[in-house]
Amino acid sequence: MSGELDGRVAAVTGGGSGIGRAIAYELAAIGAAVLVADITEKAAEETAGEARKRGARSAAVRCDVSRETDAAAMVAAATQRFGRLDFLVNCAGNLPRLLPVVDLPESDWNALLDVHLTGTFLCSRAAFDVIAEHEGAVVNLSSSYAFKGRPNAADYSAAKAGIFGFTRALAVELAPHATANAIAPGPIDTPRWRAGLSEDELAAKRARRTADVPMGRLGTPEDIARTVAFLLGPNARWITGQVFHVNGGEFFP
Ligand code: NAD
User: Within the chain, which residues score under 50 in pLDDT?
Assistant: First the structure.
């Protein structure tokens, strides 16, 4: 593998599935060594194994991003295995139960924020010094629902909106050594997006959500992965603290 991230090292949380897995493959394809971190170790190992088959340097680590010790261990694993860490992609996410605010237990709220928002903070804090050392970059996965508000997912909408404020503060603190940006995807067809639906329900959801998208199709994990690759690459060194809406025109902020 060779390309514009030759010699660089990336850690991707949530790299065992969907968007995170596509990001791991894309970064590997342009030369980065990739540490795949996921709460599901087997899934992380599958991603890393496939990246190695494709010729990249890659390893897997079990990591619950909501645990401070796991975040620190992920950074240590990257530096021990590959000698450095340049990039962090915060992509791990658990699913909301889809309950209206009046029925939403505080425990659901906390569980969602713990992973999406606190996990992004803990991993970024653990990686801050090593990333700043290497003119690196952080990319955080938010969602168009942070702007639009998703009915029955106030926990998810709030966590994803919190990521914007966090990313901006992080960008200012990392400057001028490294960058931090967020991506707000529209509907991306992944295991998460299909979770719990029958074939009929899924077909109806695909039709409904595609109708919302002027570009006439749902997004793919690769649409997001290519945006991450750009933001980590040499052509994005003067871009920081920004939110990228990658959504086929579904939504204009
Ligand atoms: P996915 O469910 O396919 O993958 C999420 C991964 O995160 C899984 O491998 C899961 O095991 C892992 N994970 C869950 N909890 C974790 C934890 N505590 N620590 C470490 N790993 C954990 O989901 P996806 O659709 O690929 O979504 C990836 C990210 O993109 C999420 O942050 C999601 O909110 C965001 N996003 C997705 C969409 C979409 O339409 N799919 C749209 C906007 C934003």
Answer: none
